[in-house]
Design a protein that fits this description.
Blueprint (H helix, E strand, L loop, with lengths): L33 H9 L13 H4 L1 E6 L4 H20 L8 H7 L6 E8 L17 E7 L1 H10 L12 E8 L6 E2 L7 H17 L3 E2 L11 H4 L4 E10 L4 E10 L2 E10 L1 H16 L11
Parallel strand pairs: 4-6, 4-7
Antiparallel strand pairs: 1-3, 2-3, 4-5, 7-8, 8-9
């Protein structure tokens, strides 16, 4: 598949491949309900994110959501897929938002070897105009490894090899209402289930093998070794009204060194993306995330 996919000059693409109001200056179409998308992802993403699942093919593959299957919709879907693959393969999340990557994303189709769609509405009949141009789909794109590696070289980056270190996450959550809890592999209420989906999705999108402890593992002194992990990502995720969102404090222990950083005033989805992207940056040797002070 080749050719340049054109973007309207007054639009920006978002991390989910959509247009419309969104945070961090990105946009998504109003017709796509993010809660619905999260619910659909819940049946696709489970723990653990095994090392065997993070192979070369998966690193050069990405998925986003688009509001149709036409050429313009495909453009919106492929652009964030290319950015995700460049980050996953290189291990450098600093490429997110890089103007050079944004320019490459306008030509994302030039680097694709295959594209597939999956109807988010599971073949339910269209409602009114829906189904003709704005029916939501997953778009999955496979990219040519040689072309991606060449793009990374032009950006001063190189691929980070597999297998990658296995991360064990030990995360304590303190919500706005109700009791705090440790995020474990299964069990808990609706919030815990939603958080597992968000964390697993963040791990997949960064190409990191990641495991959560079982409830019986939490009290152990060395959880990472118990679960055969190479690195321990520990942290707290606390809802703070003054921050207008969640505050995540992260601590990564790897090869007798410890790294700390923080994110404030975000959704828990964004908090987990910050945790996994920071972990990716450190483990791949691309520096350290910026620490946010209170």
């Amino acid at each position: 598949m080749g050719g340049t996919l054109k973007f309207p000059d007054d639009q920006e693409y978002g991390s989910n491949g959509c247009s419309g109001p969104f945070q961090e200056g990105r946009r998504v179409p109003g017709c796509l309900k993010l809660g619905f998308v999260a619910a659909a992802l819940a049946v696709l993403i489970v723990f653990p994110v095994a090392a065997a699942d993070i192979d070369l093919a998966s690193l050069y593959r990405a998925q986003s959501v688009t509001s149709g299957t036409g050429e313009e919709n495909r453009a919106w879907g492929l652009a964030p897929c290319l950015e995700e693959v460049l980050v996953k393969v290189s291990g450098d999340p600093r490429l997110i938002g890089d103007p050079r990557v944004a320019d490459m994303s306008r030509h994302a189709a030039d680097y694709v070897t295959g594209v597939g769609y999956r109807d988010l509405l599971n073949n339910r009949p269209p409602h009114d105009e829906q189904g003709t141009h704005d029916r939501p789909h997953y778009i999955t794109a496979d990219f040519d490894p040689d072309k991606i590696d060449a793009l990374l070289a032009s950006l001063g980056r190189k691929p980070w090899a597999v297998p990658r270190p296995k991360i064990v996450a030990l995360l304590d959550v303190r919500p706005m209402k109700g009791d705090g809890f440790t995020l474990v592999r299964d069990g808990g209420g609706e919030l815990a289930a939603d958080m597992r989906v968000a964390l697993a999705d963040a791990a997949h999108r960064t190409g990191l093998p990641l495991e959560l402890p079982r409830p019986s593992d939490v009290a152990l002194a060395d959880v990472a070794n118990t679960l055969d992990g190479d690195a321990l990502l520990a942290g707290t995720l606390v809802w703070r009204q003054e921050a207008l969102g969640w505050v995540g404090d992260w601590r990564l222990s790897f090869k007798d060194k410890e790294y700390r950083w923080q994110v404030r005033g975000v959704s828990f989805d964004d908090a987990f993306r910050n945790a996994t992207r920071g972990t990716l940056q450190i483990l791949s040797g691309n520096g350290e995330p910026e620490a946010v002070t209170p």
